[in-house]
Amino acid sequence: MEARLNYFASPTAGKAFKYFMSAGKTVKESALPAATQELVALRVSQINGCAFCIDMHTKDAAAAGETSVRLNLVAAWREATVFTEAERAALELAEEGTRVADAAGGVSDKVWEYAAKHYDEEQLTALVILVSFMNTVNRLNIIAQQPAGDYVPGQFH
């Protein structure tokens, strides 16, 4: 399988991604815990069906020491006992922030308040930007049909 577009060869993509990826780097360097960031990135990518991002974030999280049990249970986090309350709050916010069309009202006050109990304003800001960032990256990869499976941990860092 070959991607429809080669973003790395495109001058337009190169110019746009320079700024876009610096936003992603800013979130990566934020006070939002790295493990939470990977879990959220993985869950958003699962919801959107972005194979490339699922491949990337599963491998990056594993390389950073995340367990296979937790990675395998992200898709069913509500029934899993392996996530902290803070991670559960982040995953719930990520789901509602990703499923805005399905949720009609976007992120509910209940979900927001639950997340605000576990994260300060800077961490919440990073979480919201991360969810938005992942939704954008997922769409770029899905539209271009980026193939998955060959990602090497840390390849884009």
Low-confidence stretches: none
**C-alpha Rg, in Å?**
15 Å
**Overall pLDDT confidence:** 95
Taking the alpha carbons of the first and last residues, their distance comes to: 24 Å
Return the CATH class: Mainly Alpha
Sequence of secondary-structure elements: HHHHHHHH
Largest sheet: none
Task: Explain what you see.
This is Alkylhydroperoxidase. With 157 residues, the protein is an all-alpha fold. It has a single domain (33-144), classed as AhpD-like. It has helices at residues 11-28, 34-48, 51-63, 68-73, 85-98, 100-103, 109-118, 121-144.
Give the helices and strands, then pairings.
Layout: H1 11-28, H2 34-48, H3 51-63, H4 68-73, H5 85-98, H6 100-103, H7 109-118, H8 121-144
Helix pairs in contact: 2-3, 2-5, 2-8, 5-7, 5-8
Task: Considering the chains and any ligands shown, give keywords for the structure.
single chain; 157 residues; mainly alpha; AhpD-like; 66% helix; 0% strand
